[in-house]
């Protein structure tokens, strides 16, 4: 797994737009960048430094053409460059006397020089023939021509042979040329999926205009797609450009295979001789790959996978080990990007371990995918430009009219310029390439905020997989002030972190996962708020400067220590004290070349490669001191280990070809800083297995608690589904789920307790899990040596042998987790294949384990009860040229999966205890809800399950057991109603048949004051118990909600009651009209057929009365803020209420008292929401003419215009108002208000009334302004 992090680095190659990058390669500690007219050498280690450069002169470019292809031979330090004029140039790399001062040991000691050695003109045997393919081994270079011929050239420039690819083998090539699932057109708005092709027609899919515009071209500028008759393309030596010509070649020395892309889009696999590419006559076409529109290919030799990039913008994956079986199609179409956005696939590059591959598109974008199809990284910003509505032709700088050339016609389309797909310079054959104009500001923003916006020219992974270097194709932009043209493509380096260990941290009570970067460790941890965060733990430069990059990372069982190994030595980090520990002696550090790291308690186990003697050994050090004087044990190994694992006191080592050794670590004494114990490693098991299967990727002990036979001893097979795990025998007195892990914590790992060898043998694991390079996951019995296949297509797996001991004791079977192209899967030992080898329900996926295809699982944190995954997020910054790639962790609870497993085996007590242990976790309520929902959904969606429910039940169903489990927790009522609201109401009777009567659950919520949950039950009660009971319950709840000031909840109840009354009346009236029976109405209602309508009116009147009573109480008590919340929450008709008799009866007391009371209740000063509430009330009281309320509210709000309008017709009232305000204790605060009102009155009545406010008349203290 690879995930991008940090800001990408732009390497300044100082080349112009007329010198694009044609080749990028990282090998032998060098980054080789080949431009059209120059070659550059950079360091590929921790730092990027240009070591050398060779620039071709104008004469050479004119005679031989620009550079087109290149290939590097590390053995002879020679670079071969093929020019557009079919001339091979050979360059030797030599060391210069200029020293290079770099800390990294992998960097050369001095600058390098590229010396031109010789050139060889390759014979083409035709005017229209070009060289399109170029591969090499250590001795020879193989060139593929568009005519179908192959030339073999030595690294000295001598022609060693020539042959026709199709000389006599074309009719012997096996395999289908066309596989339908590998050639489907993308489903996009502009590229509808083509109809199935008939068997009589040649299976070439039709090409939309954007596809034809993005086809790859040969070095001489011709399109690679000829579209000619396939008959001539496969037909012998005369194939030529008729389909048998070479468009690209990729060579795998490990597989002795050459993948050839033909000019017509087909792909053929060719075998080579035992001596490599020589002789050329032994290059034989063997098998077709079922793609007919291929643009590029890449071979993952370690995994035996073939990735074919198509002209449709998709990547087709094939399994070379299974006769080129098509595995899956990978594309960006599901994320909303179409062919018009990305164009055809330009290049594909596998990571060094072949677990991921990078895909670059011709028009826009770079992405990294896992083999399973998980999108790990993508440079394209969210949103497809092709899905945007087309802009008008009269738009300004935001759009431009771009002519797009097609093979037959030329059309003009209008697209946003921010889409690189509409860039004419990015479209081969465009008549307006480089000449179209667009908004310079928009283009600059897109270019700076999105890498690879102009397409990808070349891409290469670093030797350790921590860097990805991509060359961006040029993009049209502003090259100078007011000058438009093609900008030079950028050379961008992306930093990646990869998954470093598949073993969970057992002792951690929270989420704890780690990823390894080149110079850091990325820790995924949960903080105090249970939120997942990624912490960058940067390794000190004093160690990393000479030991870059990180090779191995291992965490201690309790999550307190971290061991990191670079090129040499080991460094430890205490996560609690934040301190690092290294070897005190540099010579000792350099003597250690780590090939693997393990933890056993307080002891760190280092698999060391002694370079001088080419031998391997296990070195055991205490975590308190790294020094040879503290070495606890040294044990030799026969060969370099393929896989390592540790569990309890046991160490598992697998060496080639397939030898397995199990060591028991005996510790005599306590491991502490003051005392070093005596440690011995004893071989307790040794196996040598002959197997023709693929090499190992990972190997893990299966804990003794993981298989039922491990508690009872012997070689008893795990039991089938019907028996369950509880029927397996267990040793007398043993703890359920206990086993060696807890014993090992008390005995091994430096515990100080001496264990007899016999007791160690009894606790010894007898099974282990194997993962091979082809993705096959299997279970190996260490007693018999038999291997049992579990599933294929797995990328990683986890065995949760740790976590909370109390929780582990409840689960007798340790779950096995795996991730692959099917997603996340889980097994239990009693569910895997039976003795006949037939798979059972182990293949079925649990819905709880579903992750998005852009979230990759890092591992299982059993103590935290979650599966931790990580995805990419882009963040933009105005101070950075590129966006920042931020790994974003996500968590998926595993509790529903574990509880279902216990419920399926009728282990109710264990399930209850496990749920109680998890009750404090943040996802507990969601886990219970998801458990009930998935069980209920499975039962309702299965026809057989529905038939079983109709039969006589022999016992409680799984749904009954799930409801019984959840009933033990206070979240029960919330969980049940949440599940009900997520399902169809037709299935509610089945749910509440197991969960209990809906009205009873409502009453329990009502009694426990869970009013919001009770509101959710109203719909269920109405559906199951009838509208009468539902309406009565809603009325009761409405009154309580108003008393508790839960006005939003009251509003929902009001809307329900009004709707329920209307629907009930309409339903009964329609039923009566249909039956035309008055007698039915008589028996139902006791009076005429107008009863339903009258009942609806009564319900409406009742609701209106309840709301009116609440409004009266709030206004009488002057709780005006609650009054506003009440009116808004319930949508109460406040204006109508004020006009009613009850509203008019609500009077204010005398003006001074009312002013003080309302001021205190509203608290307008400094509170915006209170002021808005007062404005709301003022608008309503003015509408109905409540003058005393208007005067008080307008005074508090300082609304002079409202007061002037009120007093302009009654100057006596104005005089009384002035005197009343001046009599207030804080009268000075109203001076500005009085002055403003006086100005308004003067403007309205004239200057004769300007002195009325100074008459000095008394305002009665108890008199209130008349309404």
What's the SSE blueprint?
Layout: E1 2-11, E2 21-27, E3 30-35, E4 38-43, E5 50-55, H1 58-64, E6 67-73, E7 78-83, E8 87-99, E9 110-121, E10 131-136, E11 140-145, E12 149-154, E13 159-164, H2 209-213, H3 230-233, E14 246-252, E15 257-262, E16 267-271, E17 284-289, E18 294-300, E19 305-310, E20 315-319, E21 325-330, H4 339-342, E22 345-350, E23 356-361, E24 366-370, E25 375-378, E26 399-405, E27 410-416, H5 440-449, E28 456-461, E29 467-472, E30 475-480, E31 483-487, E32 491-499, E33 512-516, E34 520-526, E35 532-538, H6 541-547, E36 552-555, E37 561-565, E38 571-574, E39 579-581, H7 586-590, E40 594-600, E41 603-610, E42 615-622, E43 633-637, E44 643-647, E45 650-655, E46 659-668, E47 678-688, E48 696-701, H8 709-712, H9 740-746, H10 757-763, E49 767-772, E50 777-781, E51 787-791, E52 794-799, H11 805-808, E53 816-820, E54 823-827, E55 856-861, E56 866-875, E57 884-893, H12 895-904, H13 908-917, H14 924-941, H15 943-950, H16 958-966, H17 972-981, H18 988-995, H19 998-1007, H20 1011-1025, H21 1027-1043, H22 1047-1075, H23 1078-1085, ...
Antiparallel strand pairs: 1-32, 2-3, 3-4, 4-5, 6-7, 7-8, 8-9, 10-11, 11-12, 12-13, 14-15, 15-16, 16-17, 18-19, 19-20, 20-21, 22-23, 23-24, 24-25, 26-27, 28-29, 29-32, 30-31, 32-33, 33-34, 34-35, 36-37, 37-38, 38-39, 40-41, 41-42, 42-43, 44-45, 45-46, 46-47, 48-49, 49-50, 50-51, 52-53, 53-54, ...
Q: What labels describe this entry?
A:
1267 residues, alpha+beta, disordered C terminus
Rounded Rg: 39 Å
Number of strands: 57
> Number of DSSP helices?
33
Q: Which structural class fits the helix and strand makeup?
A: alpha+beta
Shape: globular
Termini separation comes to: 78 Å
Strand content: 25-35%
Residue share in helix: 25-40%
Which residues form runs of ≥5 with pLDDT under 50?
187-242, 387-446, 479-485, 706-756, 833-844, 1076-1090, 1250-1267
Average predicted confidence as pLDDT: 78
Biggest sheet descriptor: 7 strands, antiparallel
């Amino acid at each position: 797994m690879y995930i991008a992090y940090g800001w990408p680095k732009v390497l300044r190659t100082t080349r112009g737009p007329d010198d694009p990058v044609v080749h990028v390669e990282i090998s032998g500690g060098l980054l080789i960048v080949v431009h059209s007219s120059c070659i550059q050498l950079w360091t590929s280690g921790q730092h990027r430094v240009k070591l050398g450069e060779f620039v071709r002169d104008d004469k050479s470019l004119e005679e031989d053409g620009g550079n087109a292809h290149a290939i590097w031979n590390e053995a002879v330090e020679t670079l071969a460059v093929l020019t557009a004029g079919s001339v091979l140039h050979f360059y030797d790399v030599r060391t210069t006397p200029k020293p290079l001062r770099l800390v990294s040991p992998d960097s050369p000691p001095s600058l390098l020089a590229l010396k031109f050695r010789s050139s060889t003109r390759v014979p083409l045997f035709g005017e229209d023939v070009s060289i399109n393919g170029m591969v090499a081994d250590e001795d020879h270079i193989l060139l593929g021509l568009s005519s179908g011929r192959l030339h073999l050239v030595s690294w000295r420039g001598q022609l060693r042979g020539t042959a026709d690819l199709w000389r006599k083998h074309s009719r012997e090539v096996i395999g289908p040329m066309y596989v339908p699932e590998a050639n489907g057109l993308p489903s996009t708005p502009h590229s509808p999926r083509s109809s199935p092709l008939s068997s009589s027609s040649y299976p070439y899919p039709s090409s939309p205009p954007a596809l034809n515009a993005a086809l790859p071209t040969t070095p001489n500028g011709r399109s690679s797609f000829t579209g000619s008759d396939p008959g001539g393309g496969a037909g012998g030596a005369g194939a030529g450009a008729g389909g048998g010509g070479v468009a690209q070649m990729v060579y795998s020395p490990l597989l002795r295979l050459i993948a050839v892309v033909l000019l017509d889009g087909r792909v053929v696999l060719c075998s080579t001789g035992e001596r490599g590419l020589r002789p050329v006559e032994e290059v034989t076409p063997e098998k077709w790959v079922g793609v007919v529109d291929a643009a590029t290919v890449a071979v993952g030799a370690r995994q035996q996978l073939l990735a074919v990039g198509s002209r449709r913008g998709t990547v087709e994956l094939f399994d070379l080990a299974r006769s080129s079986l098509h595995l899956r199609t990978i594309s960006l179409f599901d994320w909303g990007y179409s062919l018009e956005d990305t164009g055809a696939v330009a290049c594909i590059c596998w990571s060094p371990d072949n677990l991921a591959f990078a895909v670059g598109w011709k028009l826009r974008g770079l992405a990294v995918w896992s083999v399973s199809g998980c999108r790990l990284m993508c440079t394209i910003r969210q949103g497809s430009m092709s899905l945007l509505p087309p802009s008008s032709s009269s738009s300004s700088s935001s759009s431009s009219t771009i002519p797009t050339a097609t093979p037959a016609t030329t059309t003009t389309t209008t697209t946003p310029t921010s889409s690189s797909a509409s860039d004419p310079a990015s479209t081969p054959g465009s008549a307006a390439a480089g000449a179209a104009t667009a908004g310079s500001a928009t283009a600059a923003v897109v270019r700076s905020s999105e890498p690879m916006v102009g397409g990808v020219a070349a891409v290469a992974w670093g030797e350790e997989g921590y860097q990805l270097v991509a060359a961006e194709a040029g993009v049209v932009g502003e090259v100078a002030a007011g000058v438009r043209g093609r900008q030079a493509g950028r050379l961008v380096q992306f930093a990646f972190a990869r998954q470093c260990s598949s073993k969970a941290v057992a002792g951690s009570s929270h989420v704890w996962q780690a990823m390894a970067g080149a110079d850091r460790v990325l820790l995924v941890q949960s903080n105090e708020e249970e939120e997942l965060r990624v912490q960058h733990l940067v390794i000190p430069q004093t160690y990393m400067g000479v030991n870059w990059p990180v090779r191995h990372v291992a965490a201690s069982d309790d999550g307190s220590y971290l061991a990191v190994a670079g090129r040499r030595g080991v460094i430890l980090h205490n996560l609690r004290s934040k301190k690092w520990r290294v070897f005190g002696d540099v010579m000792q550090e350099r003597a250690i070349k780590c090939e693997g790291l393990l933890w056993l308690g307080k002891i760190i186990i280092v698999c060391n490669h002694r370079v001088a003697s080419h031998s391997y050994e296990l070195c055991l050090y205490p975590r308190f001191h790294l020094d040879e004087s503290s070495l606890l044990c040294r044990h030799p190994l026969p060969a370099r280990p393929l896989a390592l694992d540790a569990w309890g006191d046991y160490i598992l080592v697998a060496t080639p070809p397939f030898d397995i050794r199990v060591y028991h670590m005996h510790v005599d004494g306590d491991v502490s800083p003051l005392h070093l114990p005596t440690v011995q490693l004893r071989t307790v098991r040794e196996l040598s297995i002959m197997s023709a299967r693929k090499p190992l990727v990972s190997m893990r002990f299966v804990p003794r608690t993981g298989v039922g036979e491990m508690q009872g001893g012997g070689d008893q097979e795990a039991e089938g589904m019907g028996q369950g795990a509880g029927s397996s025998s267990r040793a007398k007195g043993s703890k359920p789920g206990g086993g060696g892990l807890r014993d090992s914590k008390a005995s091994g790992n430096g515990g100080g307790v001496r264990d007899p060898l016999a007791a160690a043998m009894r606790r010894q694991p007898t099974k282990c899990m194997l993962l091979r390079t082809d993705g096959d996951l299997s279970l190996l019995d260490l007693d018999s040596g038999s291997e049992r296949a579990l599933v294929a297509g797995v990328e990683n797996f986890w065995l949760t042998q740790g976590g909370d001991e109390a929780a582990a004791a409840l689960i007798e079977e340790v779950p096995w987790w795996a991730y692959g192209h099917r997603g996340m899967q889980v097994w239990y030992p009693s569910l895997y294949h039976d003795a006949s080898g037939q798979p059972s329900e182990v293949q079925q996926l649990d819905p709880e384990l579903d992750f998005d295809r852009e979230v990759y699982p890092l591992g299982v944190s059993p103590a935290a009860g979650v599966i931790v995954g990580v995805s990419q997020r882009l963040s933009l910054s105005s101070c950075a040229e590129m966006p920042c790639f931020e790994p974003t962790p996500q968590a998926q609870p595993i509790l529903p999966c574990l509880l279902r497993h216990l419920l399926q085996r009728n282990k109710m007590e264990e399930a209850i205890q496990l749920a109680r242990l998890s009750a404090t976790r943040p996802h507990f309520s969601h886990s219970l809800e998801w458990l009930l929902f998935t069980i209920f959904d499975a039962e309702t969606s299965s026809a057989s399950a529905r038939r079983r429910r109709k039969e006589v039940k022999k016992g409680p169903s799984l749904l009954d057991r799930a409801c019984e489990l959840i009933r033990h927790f206070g979240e029960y009522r919330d969980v049940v109603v949440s599940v009900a609201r997520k399902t169809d109401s037709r299935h509610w009777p089945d749910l509440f048949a197991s969960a209990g009567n809906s009205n009873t659950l409502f009453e329990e919520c009502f009694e426990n004051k869970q009013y919001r949950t009770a509101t959710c039950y109203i719909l269920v009660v109405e559906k199951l118990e009838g509208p009468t009971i539902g309406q009565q319950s809603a009325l009761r709840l409405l009154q309580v909600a108003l008393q508790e000031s839960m006005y939003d909840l009251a509003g929902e109840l009001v809307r329900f009651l009004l709707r329920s009354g209307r629907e009930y009346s309409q339903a009964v009236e329609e039923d009566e009209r249909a039956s035309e029976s008055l007698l039915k109405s008589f028996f139902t209602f006791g009076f005429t057929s107008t009863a339903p309508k009258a009942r609806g009116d009564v319900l409406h009147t009742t609701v209106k009365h309840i709301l009116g009573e609440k409004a009266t109480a709030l206004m009488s008590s002057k709780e005006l803020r609650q009054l506003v919340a009440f009116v808004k929450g319930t949508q109460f008709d406040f204006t109508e209420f004020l006009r009613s008799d009850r509203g008019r009866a609500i009077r204010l007391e005398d003006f001074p008292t009312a002013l003080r009371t309302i001021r205190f209740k509203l608290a307008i000063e400094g509170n915006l929401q209170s002021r808005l509430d007062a404005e709301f009330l003022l608008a309503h009281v003015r509408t109905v003419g409540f003058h005393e309320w208007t005067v008080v509210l307008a005074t508090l709000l300082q609304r002079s215009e409202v007061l002037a309008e009120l007093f302009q017709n009654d100057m006596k009232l104005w005089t009384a108002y002035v005197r009343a305000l001046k009599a207030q204790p804080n009268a000075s605060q109203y001076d500005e208000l009085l002055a403003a009102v006086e100005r308004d009155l003067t403007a309205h009545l004239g200057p004769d009334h300007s002195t009325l406010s100074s008459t000095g008349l008394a305002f009665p203290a108890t008199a209130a302004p008349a309404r």
